[in-house]
């Protein structure tokens, strides 16, 4: 069924096809699937949006801030007066997308539910809504790193089958919002660990640490310098070190090495590369250094696992 979306915009709530992206209204929910080429597109940010890019790449500009986007990323965008713009960078390739656009009513109902102190308050006011704003941390995230991302990816895969037509779009949207919320509860709990900052500053620091976290995983096959992470996250070296360790329990350097060694183990067990090739694939110019880090991580040399 994936070919059904080629050069076509299918909206699942209305079960209608469009020649272009619908004009999103704040009082309606949308679930749109499309696979098409864009030189440029521009959408209002007046509603909460959750976008999943299965394949393709380009530049995404949110409220004037440009970010690169590529395969298997999802984007969380809170309501504001700005815009989401996409530029294809002249790559002339199709982008395969699933987009949720959440109405103000559903967002406010969900915010009320998520912030309710107990079940009694929900029963006393079953149709309550909150206008306190979005609970979500905005950003571009790798689907493989989060439970909500994996759920979105599984729904995308289902959208390519006939089963998708039998699924309720309202329930799909609520399921995705609930999963994202649970992920973000974990993030907020992590943010609380950041010392000597008020809550709003902790949350802003968390956003920047998540940018560094995503960068590490997207570039694990490269040599990653701490100065590079500091620039990417817009945090000083000390602030990055302190906040990252508070959230993940290890320093950025330790985390990078742990991830590289985990990847190395996978490569070794696959048996497709020599140890020298694996070291180079993970950004190490010195096989001895690679071996020492591997042994420090696992307690034995990589050659032992290789055998």
From TrEMBL:
Domain of life of the native organism: Bacteria
GO molecular function: DNA-binding transcription factor activity; sequence-specific DNA binding
Limits of the HTH araC/xylS-type domain: 210-307
InterPro entries xrefs: Homeodomain-like_sf, HTH_AraC, HTH_AraC-typ_CS
Keyword annotations of the record: DNA-binding, Transcription, Transcription regulation
Gene3D superfamilies referenced in this protein's UniProt entry, alphabetically: Homeodomain-like (1.10.10.60)
PANTHER family noted in UniProt: ARAC-FAMILY TRANSCRIPTIONAL REGULATOR (PTHR43280), HTH-TYPE TRANSCRIPTIONAL ACTIVATOR RHAS (PTHR43280:SF28)
Protein name: HTH araC/xylS-type domain-containing protein
Lineage, top ranks: Bacteria, Pseudomonadati, Bacteroidota, Flavobacteriia, Flavobacteriales
């Amino acid at each position: 069924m994936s070919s059904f979306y080629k050069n076509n915009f299918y909206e699942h709530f209305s079960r209608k096809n469009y020649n272009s992206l619908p004009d999103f209204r704040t009082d309606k929910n949308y679930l749109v699937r499309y696979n098409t080429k864009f030189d440029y597109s521009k959408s209002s940010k007046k509603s909460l949006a959750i976008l999943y890019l299965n394949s393709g790449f380009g530049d995404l500009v949110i409220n004037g801030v440009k970010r690169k986007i590529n395969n298997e990323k999802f984007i969380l965008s809170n309501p504001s007066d700005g815009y989401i713009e996409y530029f294809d960078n002249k790559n002339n390739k199709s982008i395969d997308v699933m987009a949720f656009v959440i109405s103000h009513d559903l967002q406010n109902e969900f915010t009320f539910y998520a912030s309710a102190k107990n079940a009694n308050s929900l029963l006393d006011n079953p149709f309550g809504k909150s206008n306190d704003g979005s609970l979500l941390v905005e950003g571009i995230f790798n689907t493989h790193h989060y439970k909500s991302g994996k759920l979105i990816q599984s729904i995308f895969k289902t959208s390519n089958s006939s089963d998708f037509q039998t699924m309720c779009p309202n329930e799909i949207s609520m399921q995705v919002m609930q999963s994202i919320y649970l992920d973000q509860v974990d993030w907020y709990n992590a943010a609380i660990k950041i010392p000597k900052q008020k809550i709003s500053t902790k949350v802003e620091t968390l956003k920047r640490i998540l940018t560094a976290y995503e960068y590490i995983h997207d570039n694990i096959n490269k040599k990653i310098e701490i100065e590079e992470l500091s620039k990417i996250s817009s945090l000083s070296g000390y602030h990055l070190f302190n906040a990252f360790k508070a959230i993940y329990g290890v320093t950025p350097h330790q985390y990078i090495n742990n991830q590289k060694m985990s990847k190395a183990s996978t490569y070794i067990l696959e048996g497709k590369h020599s140890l020298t090739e694996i070291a180079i694939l993970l950004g190490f110019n010195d096989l001895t250094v690679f071996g020492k880090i591997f042994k420090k991580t696992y307690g034995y040399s990589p050659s032992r696992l290789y055998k």
